[in-house]
Write a structure and sequence with these properties.
By secondary structure, this protein is α+β, with helices and mostly antiparallel strands. The chain is built from 7 helices and 10 strands. Helix content is 52%, strand content 18%. The chain has a 5-stranded antiparallel β-sheet. Strands 7-9-8 form a 3-stranded antiparallel β-sheet, covered by helices on one side. Strand 2 and strand 3 (144-148) form a beta hairpin. Helix 1 (4-50) runs antiparallel to helix 2 and helix 6 (190-203) crosses helix 7. The chain is elongated, with a radius of gyration of 34 Å.
Length: 274
């Protein structure tokens, strides 16, 4: 007859063998499942990149797919331990609801990400202005969008805040108009000045012929006549062309003796009788 100690030892060995195998199996399910999930996500990303899908949509789809697969792997691993998955899913759903209510502001960013993906007001690489900042869209995930400014700063904007206001996409179209203002003196030859500016625009290799550039008298200011120049350029060359045209117009004005006036005030002194 087995002693009490032998009985408990045998029982412990039995449970250790039975549950140890289940725990080891669950651990293998999780590790293998996570590895397979990574491979599946990598294949999806490769296929979408090959199909030239928008990078923003690729990032969103990859992240969402990976999260869903990991949840399924965790449920499968727990089910292997003998836990009733139906009740577990119910508990998980209730916990998810409670967490969702507690993190409603954070989860609103996920909803905002879905709207951005659906309406696509911008894509990765576009230069936008939103939430009071400007920059190139570097990346986007379920919760936030990262912009890189012109001076190479990274700005992270929650997606909810991003779509709460206006979004200006400066590179959403292929062409963009440059708005330039050049001041000339009232004594200068107006027709010659317009011709000089227009020749600079027409001679620049990156100024588009359609729509045609124009030069008009925009305003008669206090100290100058203002010429408005409106050339159209490829959107990715906007800044380069604007700087080059500004310099070329100044040099052309100097060559044609056209002056650029500065604000001034004439003061008349009247001598009173002593």
């Amino acid at each position: 007859m087995l002693t009490q100690v032998e009985k408990y030892t045998e029982l412990a060995a039995q449970y250790t063998t039975e549950y140890g195998i289940k725990i080891l199996g669950s651990l293998l399910i999780f590790l293998i499942g996570r590895w397979v999930s990574g491979k599946v996500v990598a294949l999806i990303k490769k296929a979408m990149d090959k199909a030239k899908v928008d990078p923003t949509l690729v990032s969103f789809a990859v992240n969402a797919t990976y999260v869903a697969l990991i949840i399924l792997v965790i449920i499968a691993a727990i089910s292997n331990l003998g836990v009733e998955t139906t009740s577990f899913v119910a508990i998980f759903g209730a916990a998810g609801l409670a967490i969702g209510l507690a993190l409603k502001d954070t989860l609103s960013n996920v909803g905002a990400a879905v709207l951005i993906i659906f309406f696509r007001p911008f894509k990765v690489g576009d230069f936008i202005e939103a939430s009071g900042v400007m920059g190139n869209v570097k990346s986007m995930n379920l919760f936030s969008t990262t912009l890189t400014t012109a001076d190479n700063r990274s700005i992270i904007i929650p997606n909810g805040a991003l779509i709460a206001g206006n979004i200006i996409n400066y590179t959403g179209n292929e062409k963009r108009r440059i708005d330039l203002v050049f001041d000339i003196d009232y004594k200068d030859d107006l027709k010659l000045s317009k011709e000089v500016v227009l020749n600079v625009l027409l001679s620049h290799p990156n100024v588009l012929s359609e729509p045609a550039p124009i030069v008009v008298v925009g305003a008669l200011a206090d100290n100058s006549v203002q010429l408005y120049a409106r050339p159209w350029v490829p959107v990715d060359l906007y800044w380069d062309v604007m700087f080059e045209i500004t310099e070329s117009v100044k040099l052309a004005f100097d060559a044609n003796n056209i002056s650029i006036p500065f604000p001034q005030m004439d003061l008349h002194v009247r001598r009173g009788e002593l």
